Amino acid sequence: MDILVADDEDDIREQVCAILEDEGYQPRSCATIAEAQAAIQQRLPSMAILDVWFRQCDKDGLFILENLQRLSPGLPVIMVSGHGTVDMAVRALKIGACDFLTKPFSLDGLLHAVERGLREAQLTRENQDMARQLGKRQPLTATLSPAMAMVTKNLEQWAKTDRRLLVTGGAGVGKSRLVQHIHQVSSRTLGGLQRHNCAGFSDDDTEAMVLFGKEDGGVGKLELAHGGTLVLENVNRLSVAIQQLLVQFLHSKRFRRVGQNQRVKVDVRILCTSEIAAADLRRREGFSQSLYDCIALGVLELPPLRRRPEDLPALIANIQERLNHKLDQAAPEVGAESLGVLQSHHWPNNVRELENVLTRLHYSGSVATPELVHRAIGDEANHQQHSRILQWQKLIGSLAGGLRSAREEFEQQYLCYHLERFGGNVSQTAQFVGMDRASLHRKMRNLGIDGSMD
Questions:
Q1: In the listed set 95, 129, 163, which residue is the last one of a domain according to the structure?
Q2: Do 234 and 312 fall into the same domain?
Q3: How many helices and strands (H and E) does the chain possess?
Q4: Is 207 inside a domain boundary?
Q5: Is 392 a domain residue?
Q6: 105 close to 84: Cβ distance less than 8 angstroms
Q7: Do 324 and 199 have their domain in common?
Q8: What angle in degrees, to the nearest 10, is found between the helix axes of 437-447 and 426-433?
Q9: 3-state class of 42 per DSSP?
Q10: What is the pTM of this model?
Q11: What residue numbers bound the domain in which 325 lies?
């Protein structure tokens, strides 16, 4: 963890840096405001410990605090002073400092403040990420399908390493959730997760500034991800110019902000996603072979949902659990017949489509019937066909029984068909089938047919 320590008192600064090193942090020492500004230009720190007053300087530590909060709102900064006042502390905290210590301070107290500041910053990042992912985030679920077996095996092997990975699969298949899971189980969780959608820019200059930062102090996502993970979503959409800049960075771990000659060094793990399969991406015209070789040190190809119907029960349970919390209402029960409807669907938009279907079903009642499932999917024609198939399957199944049960089963299906044909009108149905109305009513009661529509 990179911590900037700026103090014009040599003994205090050296002592603070030494104790931070002993605790496993990576302090950068600065004796003046100018050195602190240069260090920030070199790389944005994960945290800063700043003295308020500097001898022979026209600016103070609060100036650096304001600069850091402008570049990265919420970055944890501890202010220290030998002449601190309540007003000064209040001003520092309003600007964005996470703590204010008065000299002389104990090293144990400083370490406690450092740990608390980093922990609170991490919780803030996690809460912001959870808010962004609300209704979308889905932890990895247990899988039963052979199609996911290899993915799971490689995931366990690679997730906790620093290996660069390429995750491929169609739209909505779960790439975003997978890379988030990889980051969460890695050793880089404290460094945070940054995402960069390579499909969201119309010109190279804008994308270069967002990714690499710019000369006047704008910090790019690469720098914000120092110590953590940067996800390049839709990497197949990168322009040739940005591809070349990324290849240079991946080889040297250094880059230049736009308009700046000084090179910035960062420690970032790169994860990439692509809707194009790895083999096709490698052969894709306009996609750098060098970039492919850099980002695809491991490849995870997520299969479409239609190839893993065995995973649907676990996925449904997981999504419904999240919907219960989000919508504050219990999800309807999905029985075996309704599950069969879901498993027979083609799912062109994969898990994303499944989430939308289950969201539509959430307010449908206590049970998600096959009819409701078909409506939620949006295929009424398939529902009618499916109902007819089920009726004939049930009728054919009755042939294995005795004559009486087979006759009753046929009569039930026959009468239900004509009642539906005449809109539930028993009189018209009786006239058509050649029975008097009273006899038909008795027959319907014996067969368990509802005649309330008459």
A1: 129
A2: no
A3: 20, 12
A4: yes
A5: no
A6: no
A7: no
A8: 100
A9: helix
A10: 0.63
A11: 305-385
pLDDT tens per residue across span 384-404: 455 555 555 555 555 556 677
Do the bridges between strand 254-256 and strand 165-168 make them parallel or antiparallel, or are there none, so unpaired? unpaired
Q: Give me the amino acid identity at 46.
A: S
Please check whether residue 274 is in contact with residue 168, taking contact to mean a CB–CB distance below 8 angstroms.
yes
If you write DSSP's letter for every residue of 181-240 in order, what string do you get? HHHHHSTTGGG-EEEEETTS-SSHHHHHHHHH-BTTSPPPHHHHTTTSEEEEETGGG--H
pLDDT tens-place string over residues 143-186: 778 888 888 888 888 988 999 999 999 999 989 989 988 998 88
The count of other CB atoms within 10 Å of the CB of residue 396 is 11
Nearest to 377 by CA among 402, 359, 395, 389: 359
What CATH number did the domain enclosing 261 receive? 3.40.50.300
137 assigned to some structural domain: no
147: left (phi over 0), alpha (psi -120 to 50) or beta: alpha
Alpha-carbon distance 332 to 363, whole Å?
A: 8
Q: Is 346 helix (H, G, I), strand (E, B) or coil?
A: coil
For every residue of 416-436, DSSP letters joined together read: HHHHHHTTT-HHHHHHHHT--
Nearest to 311 by CA among 425, 447, 426, 140: 140
